[in-house]
Amino acid sequence: MRLAVIGAGAVGRSVVELAGEHGHEVVAVADSSTAIVADGTGGSGGEAVGVDPDAVVARKAERGIVGDDDPADALAADYDVLVEATPTTLGDAEPGFSHVTTALERDRHAVLANKGPVAERYGDLRAAVGDSDGQTRFEATVGGAIPAVSTVEDIEPGHVTAVRGVLNGTANFILTRMAAEGLDYDHVLAEAQDLGVAEADPSFDVDGTDAALKCVILANVLSFGAVDDPADAREFTLEDADVSGIRDVPGSALRLAAEDGRTVRLIGEATGETVRVAPRLVPENGTLAVSGTQNIVQIETSHAGRLNISGRGAGGPETASAVLGDVGRLE
Question: Please, is 198 exposed, middle or buried when counting C-beta atoms within 10 Å of its C-beta (0-12, 13-18, 19+)?
Fold first, then answer.
């Protein structure tokens, strides 16, 4: 497959670096202000060849740009799959949503690492797919390398009653450290920021927004996948989620929980009817008590019982592996 990668952050760069190992060729890459388009795919002409992954990544690191072309040139290139890896935005989910619909209007496929279009405009996205010969996939939007979406699809959404789990590594790292060392939230947050586990502004993670977006995506998959007519499905957005974060979890609560053989984790849960994210007590040695930045997804099924899938829920190579897995499913 020929890939156009839109977004040159950690995920986009990793897709560029790893695509060749999966048998794919990157023919265009764009960041927010520049692009590089391979010859013969919308560039200066000639036989189509892919871009040089090492050169693209090095140029981004050294100069802050990927090339000398315009980002619009990457969208117009001759690719099979558009990889949408720009930062997640809420509300209208732009510019990611327009990038994806541009690909679909050209009957190209789109694979998303960007949560915005799937969490905030799922109905619009499905409508655009319905008018196109292209498909969309978005495994990378939920749990990094964990195959949550594809597992739900394989079981069939109508046979899945709920999906829950620990879906944010930053929040989980903080709660794990608080429990292990008896420290308060502010102390561990500062430590996480020093280690690069938490952003300078950690709101997206510690307030539960990131986990909620992932649960909204899962709720949409469950809701739309369980009905024959999309008009009968309920569409979820972030506004439909009941969300509480971890800022107000005191160290004393974790110490008391430990005395009872329990601990606290930020648990998200999605069904075809509700989305909830909140700190919850879980057994200290239970399945949901994953430690550090690990994530876990727990799938409740009608006939197969409970399935647990754990792994790295974030990171450039981890998320890129999910993106490239989706590309493989399109072949």
Answer: buried
